[in-house]
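Why should sequence recovery work at all? Because a backbone constrains its sequence more than one might expect. Tight turns favour small or flexible residues, buried strands favour hydrophobic ones, and helices have their own preferences. The token representation captures these environments compactly. In the example below, the structure is given first.
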């Protein structure tokens, strides 16, 4: 069913976007409280790129 697949993809894209924004908040709070950690920022950038890829490739 095309309708259910599209809804599922849209839901997973929204969830990935929420996870990316939440990750940004967590990484920023960590940086403010304990100092910068390059690996956390690198991980967040990778997560952001994956989210953008999901948005770009959705039907």
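From this structural description, the recovered sequence reads:
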């Amino acid at each position: 069913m095309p309708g259910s697949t599209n809804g599922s993809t849209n839901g997973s894209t929204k969830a990935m976007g929420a996870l990316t924004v939440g990750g940004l908040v967590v990484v920023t709070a960590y940086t403010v409280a304990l100092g910068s950690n390059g690996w956390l920022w690198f991980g967040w950038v990778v997560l952001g790129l994956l989210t953008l890829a999901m948005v770009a490739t959705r039907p």
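A few observations help interpret the result. The chain has a mean pLDDT of 86.
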